[in-house]
């Protein structure tokens, strides 16, 4: 038997890239590769990249430079670039960095095994098509190995919304939903391998409209189908767009026990003037009313958001409107970014905010968010939460997991193991996690 070849994948960007990396590793498993945790002994290095901000994209080139010495030490080492930078920059990557052998976009990675053959023959391989053959048809079943208690599952990909700042519609293509039967099949496979919590992924996951047995299904309908799977205890979904929060999905937050009380609902800005320029097609007010409706059915839901500061033409007053919106929502989590000019997007052409103003606004916004996050987390002390334990902690006999609200919770109890779902009383709130104790049955 020949030694398996080793594949090292480094993943950047969003959760969908994490999912894609798993699928790429599985596809390469069929071509005789096993995954390795370090580039040192790899026969192939694959960077699964993100193009969302300039920094993310630039990181790829500096990382590639670092691999030069690996290639010098091992001339048959193959280097590949996958993901959104691959899609956006294609051939340009090979021009800028000749040591790259292979470039594959997010919709063509099922073709990796053939591309690997090609590079083994000493050729370069590039595939950034949006092919008609569906990658998920080729990669039908998941790997058989037992796995950890949580998993991602892509149900929808791409975006038709074209926010003025965003590259995703260009790198991931048009919005496409996978058929419900395939998703349910994959979910059952995951549960059979030990998964108890599934996070449904999509760039606009709540725009899901995949084919079901009786016509297209909504995300809520899909969630109710997943709810029937024995052994699956928790369902989450991300990322949602405010305009696609349908009534049945809001309602599911009040009635579906497996659907966790956490919602990531990016708003980007609290200023209607800026939202309009961003092409977001919602207002600050409509977003706030939406959250009111969600909280009416699920009062304890923890809200999460994304914010961009320093979008072209954003004034101090616009920024203040964002701060006011944050004050009103009270977020449990939030991700905030300085606007980054992305070539080819409409906002790139508009009058830019200067870098110092962006940094100053980001700092103020993050201070507010940090305070809110801490308040939401501190309010958990004394409450009973359920924790799905995932891995050992730093202390002896300590296990760490996530509450239904997505807070990290650690408990010292040597009887606990990964995959246990247990009622816990929160006893303390530290900077990034909660401490708890197991409640007697
Ligand atoms: N599909 C999701 C998330 C897309 S990307 C949504 O619609 O919300 C994740 C986040 O990156 C965005 O929510 C936005 O806050 C941020 N982002 C996207 N493009 C950006 C840019 N050009 N500069 C700064 N942040 C950006
Ligand atoms: Fe980007 Fe907007 Fe689409 Fe989200 S909805 S992926 S921010 S274009
Ligand atoms: Fe980045 Fe592509 Fe995800 S640009 S955020 S990896 S969809």
Automatic annotation (TrEMBL):
Binds 2 [4Fe-4S] clusters. One cluster is coordinated with 3 cysteines and an exchangeable S-adenosyl-L-methionine. It catalyses: 2-thio-N(6)-dimethylallyladenosine(37) in tRNA + S-adenosyl-L-methionine = 2-methylsulfanyl-N(6)-dimethylallyladenosine(37) in tRNA + S-adenosyl-L-homocysteine + H(+); N(6)-dimethylallyladenosine(37) in tRNA + (sulfur carrier)-SH + AH2 + 2 S-adenosyl-L-methionine = 2-methylsulfanyl-N(6)-dimethylallyladenosine(37) in tRNA + (sulfur carrier)-H + 5'-deoxyadenosine + L-methionine + A + S-adenosyl-L-homocysteine + 2 H(+); N(6)-dimethylallyladenosine(37) in tRNA + (sulfur carrier)-SH + AH2 + S-adenosyl-L-methionine = 2-thio-N(6)-dimethylallyladenosine(37) in tRNA + (sulfur carrier)-H + 5'-deoxyadenosine + L-methionine + A + H(+). Residues 145-375 form the Radical SAM core domain. It holds the Pfam family UPF0004. The keyword Hydrolase does not apply. Keywords: 4Fe-4S, Cytoplasm, Iron, Iron-sulfur, Metal-binding, S-adenosyl-L-methionine, Transferase, tRNA processing. GO terms for molecular function: 4 iron, 4 sulfur cluster binding; metal ion binding; tRNA-2-methylthio-N(6)-dimethylallyladenosine(37) synthase activity. PANTHER family: CDK5 REGULATORY SUBUNIT-ASSOCIATED PROTEIN 1, MITOCHONDRIAL TRNA METHYLTHIOTRANSFERASE CDK5RAP1. This is tRNA-2-methylthio-N(6)-dimethylallyladenosine synthase. The gene is miaB.
């Amino acid at each position: 038997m020949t030694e398996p070849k080793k594949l090292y994948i480094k993943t950047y960007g969003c959760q969908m890239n994490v999912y894609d990396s798993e699928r790429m590793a599985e596809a390469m498993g069929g071509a005789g590769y096993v995954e390795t945790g370090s580039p040192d002994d790899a026969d192939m290095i694959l960077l699964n990249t993100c193009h969302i901000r300039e920094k993310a994209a630039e990181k790829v080139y500096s990382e590639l430079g670092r691999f030069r010495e690996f290639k010098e030490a091992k001339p048959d080492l193959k280097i590949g670039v996958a993901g959104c930078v691959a899609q956006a920059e294609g051939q340009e990557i090979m021009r800028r960095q000749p040591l790259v052998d292979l470039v594959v976009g997010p919709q063509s990675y099922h073709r990796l095994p053939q591309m690997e053959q090609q590079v083994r023959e000493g050729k370069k391989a590039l595939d950034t098509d949006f092919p008609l053959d569906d990658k998920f048809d080729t990669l039908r079943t998941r790997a058989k190995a037992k796995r950890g208690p949580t998993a991602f599952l892509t149900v929808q990909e791409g975006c038709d919304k074209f926010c003025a700042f965003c590259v995703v519609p260009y790198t991931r293509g048009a919005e496409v939903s996978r058929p419900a039967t395939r998703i349910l099949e994959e979910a059952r496979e995951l549960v059979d391998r030990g998964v108890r919590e599934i996070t449904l992924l999509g760039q606009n996951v709540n725009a899901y409209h995949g084919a079901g047995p009786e016509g297209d299904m909504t995300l809520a309908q899909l969630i109710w189908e997943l709810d029937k799977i024995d052994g699956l205890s928790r369902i989450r979904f991300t990322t949602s767009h405010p305009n696609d929060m349908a009534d049945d999905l809001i309602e599911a937050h009040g009635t579906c026990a497996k659907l966790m009380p956490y919602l990531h609902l990016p708003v980007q800005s609290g200023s209607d003037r800026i939202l309009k320029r961003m092409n977001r097609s919602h207002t600050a007010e409509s977003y706030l009313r939406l959250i009111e409706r969600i909280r009416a059915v699920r009062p304890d839901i923890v809200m999460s958001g994304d914010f961009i500061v320093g979008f072209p033409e954003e004034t101090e007053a616009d920024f203040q409107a964002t701060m006011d919106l944050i004050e009103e929502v009270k977020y449990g989590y939030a991700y905030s970014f300085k606007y980054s000019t992305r070539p080819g997007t409409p906002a790139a052409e508009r009058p830019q905010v200067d870098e110092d103003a962006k940094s100053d606004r980001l700092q103020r916004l993050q201070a507010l968010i940090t305070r809110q996050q801490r308040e939401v987390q501190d309010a958990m002390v004394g409450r009973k939460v359920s924790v799905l334990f995932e891995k050992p902690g730093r202390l002896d006999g300590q296990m760490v997991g996530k509450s239904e609200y997505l807070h990290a919770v650690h408990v010292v109890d040597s009887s606990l193991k990964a995959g246990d779902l247990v009622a816990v009383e929160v006893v303390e709130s530290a900077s990034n996690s909660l401490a708890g104790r197991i409640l007697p049955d």
